[in-house]
Amino acid sequence: xxxxxxxxxxxxxxxxxxxxxxxxxxxxxxxxxxxxxxxxxxxxxxxxxxxxxxxxxxxxxxxxxxxxxxxxxxxxxxxxx
Length: 81
Prior knowledge:
By secondary structure, this protein is α+β, with helices and mostly antiparallel strands. 42% of the residues lie in helices and 15% in strands. The model has no long low-confidence stretch (mean pLDDT 87).
């Protein structure tokens, strides 16, 4: 996995496949959802992802409210994906 500054998906794949160890390129300049922080924090309790302003916020009281549900869903492998 690697974050690339490319806007051209084809060029990014060309770079990724040209190396000794191919990798899956992430292109945050193409989509906000390509950012590794957005991907890693999806479904995490207390996290608010704002794609319009392209910001990630954390709310502590929301974290405590959502934590029990998070643990209930943690056993489901599809929940985090």
